[in-house]
Amino acid sequence: MKKSEFSFHVFSYGSGVAFTRALGLIREIIYAQFFGAGMLMDVFRVAFNIPNFLRDLFSEGSLSASFIPICAEKYNSEGKGSAGKFTGLILNNVFFAITIITGILILITPFLIQIFVPGFLKNPYQYHLAISTMRMIFPFLIFITLSSIIMGFLNINKQFTITGISPSIWNLTIILSIIILVPIFKKHSFAIIYSGAIGVVLGGIFQFIFQLPIAFKEKFRFSRFINFSDPDFIRMLKLWIPMVIGTASYGLMFLVNNFIASFLEEGSISCLSYGFRLMQLPLGIFGVSIFAVSLPRASLESAKNDNIRIRKTMIKSFHMLSLLLLPSAVFLIVDSYDIVKLIYEHGAFSRSSTILTAQILQLYAIGLFAMGAGKVLSGIYYSFKEARLPMIASIITVIFNILIAVSLLKFLQVRSLALAISLGSLLNFTILTAVFSKHFFHFPFKEFFTNGLPPLLSSLLTGCLFFLFKRNIILFSQNTKILEALGVFTDIVAFTIIYLLFISVFDKNIRDQFKGRLYGKRH
Predict the structure, then answer these.
(1) What is the per-residue burial (b if ≥16 Cβ within 10 Å, else e) of 86-124?
(2) pLDDT tier at 473 (50, 70, 90 boundaries)?
């Protein structure tokens, strides 16, 4: 695959994700406006986080990743039609299994609350509200899991724009549900967070339906059969089991965070989540986009035993990650307060919540690049149908995270949880790079450092100049949301311009591409 084609696919997927993340930010604003950062929002976060953690196990986090290499192999050896029929069979098997699992989870919801957020037991109303809200949300697991299988099939067929934009349907449905239902629920004395729970479920249904027309165009077909003994399905399960253990251990880390935060001051869970959502914006647009493109591409190349192309895919992926995530991390660190204030500080969201969320965001940003790079490198492992090593790395990382979080809790309070996530991500990526060469081919350390150093240097220099710019030049008084928005927009433009100037000087690859395009236009 040519570099321009790889970049185009990342751009296509990233554009869809950018729109989705923009709606996600609006969704977070709606959360802050209607639910605030207190007890109600803590309940909603917990009620959503546990099903969302299970979504990572049954959909994007592991099931989809185990499906793509097997489906790509069938696509490569038997053609698009065979891959489409295989997808239909997998969809039936998964639907049957996830429906039973969801029913069991609804039954044991009180037990889950008692285990993961025992702090809620101190307030009976909070405890029972969490149970009812989580039970309402659980059915979304069925549809979001089916949607992830279709998404994997579409990514193999290079329909990256559709798969990037489809989660926006989910976000939009939640937003509209809250806006429409909250006034109704208030009038009839229902808990207003039920509006968000209803939106989560309806959004999962609509997201699944949205992808079907394009999937049919790419020769996807529903199957009339359920076959758990299908050899390829069994291979997929064997790949999925270590993936799900690794994903579960990583997701457990976030549940442990909620467990610890439930004993801290009220609003700690919400601020931790708000900061994480903001960090997810660049990670989702850039990191997840590169992962979404590189995994099916590397899987197709692995099916052909083409290690040379896989190596090139890795080099392209890490270079793009460094170009995009390193400056994003620095920007989040130096402009965190203004970003959080603009997006969240209104309605029930207080100034003290803004300060705490901004500090949490800064600590998350430290590990932003490692989070993206670890995800992409795990995808390369999966393309070789190797999930055991990422699983081991995840387990080690979780143990490390918990130790760091607990040891720093007295000094940093809830902030220690964000710092532990970042340091753990750095450890996870280090482990994956250290053992890669022993199992596959020589890890491209030289290209990784030579391509990564210019963006790192450019990002740090940009951050220093931008910090001076922020301290000495005040363009807007920021007394209104419009002025705050103009201020943050100016910050983004200024930071981007400075970064582009530095990267064009330090990064030879960027200079060569710019010269090539300029030369092409002149001739």
Answers:
(1) bbbbbbbbbbeebeebbeebeeebeebbeebbebbeeee
(2) low
pLDDT band at 523; cut points 50, 70, 90: very low
Distance of alpha carbon 272 from alpha carbon 65, whole angstroms: 27
CB 134 within 8 A of CB 196: no
Q: What angle do CA 354, 356, 358 make, to 5 degrees?
A: 65
Alpha-carbon distance of 152 to 163, in angstroms, equals 8
Burial of residue 33 (CB within 10 Å: 0-12, 13-18, 19+) is middle
| Dihedral angle sign, alpha carbons of residues 485, 488, 492, 494 | positive
Q: Which residues contact 313 (CB under 8 A, 6 or more apart)?
A: 1, 6, 294, 297, 298, 301, 380
Q: pTM score, two decimals?
A: 0.79
The answer to whether the beta carbons of residues 250 and 394 sit under 8 Å apart is yes
HEC per residue, 130-178:
HHHHHHHHCCHHHHHHHHHHHHHHHHHCCCHHHHHHCHHHHHHHHHHHH
Whether residue 511 is predicted with pLDDT greater than 60 in this model: the reply is yes
Tell me whether residue 384 is exposed, middle or buried, using C-beta atoms within 10 angstroms of its C-beta: 0 to 12, 13 to 18, 19 or more.
middle
Contact 514, 504 (CB under 8 A): yes
DSSP annotation of 441: S
Secondary structure percentages of the chain, helix, strand, coil, to 5: 85, 0, 15
Burial 163-194 (b: 16+ CB within 10 A, else e): bbbbbbbbbbbbbebbeebbeebeeeeebbbb
pLDDT digit string (tens) for 223-239?
Answer: 888 888 889 899 888 88
CA pair distance 272, 255, nearest whole angstrom = 12
For residue 90, give the 3-state DSSP assignment. Answer: helix
